[in-house]
Amino acid sequence: MKNRNYLSQRLRMSLLRAADAIETHRSLLKASVALGISQPALSKSLLELEDVLQVQLFERHSRGVRPTEAGLLFVGSARRIIAELNRLDEELDQLSNPLGGTAALGALPVTAVGILPGVLTRLKLTHPGLRVRLQQGRTEDLLPLLAAGDIDLIVGRLYEPAVPDGFLREKLWLEPISILARAGHRLFEQENVTADDLRRYDLVLPTVTQRIGQEIEHLLSVLGLRPTAMLRSSSYGFIREMLHGSDLLSIMPRLMMVGDLLRGTLRVVPLPVPAPERPAGLILPRDRTLPAGSMAFVECLRGYVHVIEERGFAPITSGYSGGGEDDTAAGE
After folding, report:
1. CB within 10 Å: which end of the chain, N or C, has fewer?
2. Is 141 exposed, middle or buried (CB count within 10 Å of its CB: 0-12, 13-18, 19+)?
3. What's the CATH fold of domain 97-174+278-321?
4. Which CATH architecture has domain 6-76?
5. Domain-wise residue ranges, the chain
6. Chain centroid to CA 218: how far?
7. 6-76 and 177-269 agree in CATH topology
8. CB of 28 within 8 A of CB of 42?
9. How many of the other CB atoms lie within 10 Å of CB of 275?
10. Stated pTM of the model
């Protein structure tokens, strides 16, 4: 029979990180690259870990490895331990440098390229010593990190979840799918823009995740715009340059280009049909208080959203839900 201190005496942080990396990448080769060690060294660590635990953590298959039930249980605990140690490191840093600290943030891709740069610019001015640790991804990828405490919050688009997950969600702004064009575009000389007016111009569209893509395609269908007359790109910079340098139009969540909207170099084309509101905001843990650094981020986020609302680009909304809206089906 194992004594109660058996695991605490035998487990090392390197073994916890090894299990975390293997489950994340589902491949010993990819995990070894991520950890910066050789694959044989990682395999040796895994064998040592399974010997300590006396259970099999991963099963090999033709495309890599997958965790066993025991593996999922262990990796969940390992991630909580790693996150707690990271948090301790950050809190000790806060004690030694009261003007510093860390904000551990999760951001959805559209928010990361759109609203986040403006928020972080404000945060840098008000809290110059604060470090920001940013993890970008879909909600389905970020929620486990939020649950484990590896990140403090998630910011981005909110969807209804298929199953309540217990996280708090705070709606802060609305971000409808919109048509964008350069400020000097001829469309803005017209009193009323019709679908026929829009059909005269070619499109440059973002290559986005499935869910946003479906929303864009729905609007294209409603407006009767021709799919053959499009450029598509995953490059935010390319789309931005094409909009500024031509009469092309783009359809996207409008705050992807919020910096240019605020500067007045791009404008939102009035739609001849209504568009869904698309709420966005924060996903928060129910059982943890936000650290000071992330509280400072939230304060700056609210301030920046207020500026955007004052300029008429994103109506402010508010309210909490407990099981929440979520985009785990596809992410944004």
Report:
1. N
2. middle
3. D-Maltodextrin-Binding Protein; domain 2 (3.40.190)
4. Orthogonal Bundle (1.10)
5. 6-76, 97-174+278-321, 177-269
6. 24
7. no
8. yes
9. 16
10. 0.71
The full 3-state SS of the chain, as one line of letters, equals: CCCCCHHHHHCCHHHHHHHHHHHHHCCHHHHHHHHCCCHHHHHHHHHHHHHHHCCCCEEEECCEEEECHHHHHHHHHHHHHHHHHHHHHHHHHHHHCCCCCEEEEEECHHHHHCCHHHHHHHHHHHCCCCEEEEEECCHHHHHHHHHHCCCCEEEEECCCCCCCCCCEEEEEEECCEEEEEECCCHHHHCCCCCHHHHCCCCEEEECCCHHHHHHHHHHHHHHCCCCCCEEEECCHHHHHHHHHHCCCEEEEEHHHHHHHHHHCCEEEECCCCCCCCCEEEEEECCCCCCCHHHHHHHHHHHHHHHHHHHCCCCCECCCEECCCCCCCCCCC
Both tokens assigned to 328: 């785990």
Beta-bridged to residue 205, according to DSSP, are 232
Count CA atoms closer than 13 A to 13's CA, side-chain side.
Answer: 7
